[in-house]
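task queued by scheduler; priority normal; single chain, no ligands, no partner chains; default sampling; output format set to C-alpha cells
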Amino acid sequence: MEVGVRELRDSLSSYLAEVRAGRTVTVTDHGQPIARIVPNGRLTRSEPPRGERRVQPARTRKQPAPQPIQGHGTVSELIGDQRR
C-alpha cells in the first residue's frame, strides 16, 4: 500500500491500523518512495536477525571529554582575533 506524505499526516491513525493488521505502508513524496512503515517484529532485508551478532561491542571505552578552555570575550570577538 502506498500513501503520500500529506495523506499519511491527515489519516495517520487509519494507516497505523493497517500496519497493526500486518500490512506494510510505503510513504511517497511526489510519487517517489521515501520510507516504509512495517509491522513491529517483521524483519526487512537490511535488518539481520538478532541472533546473527554482526555488531561487535567496542573493545575500549571512550575517553572522557577534555576540560573546556576558558576564553575571554564573546565568540564573535574571538573569531575576529583569529582572522587578523
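post-processing summary
- The chain is about 30% helix and 15% strand.
- The helical segments are 5-10, 12-20, 75-83.
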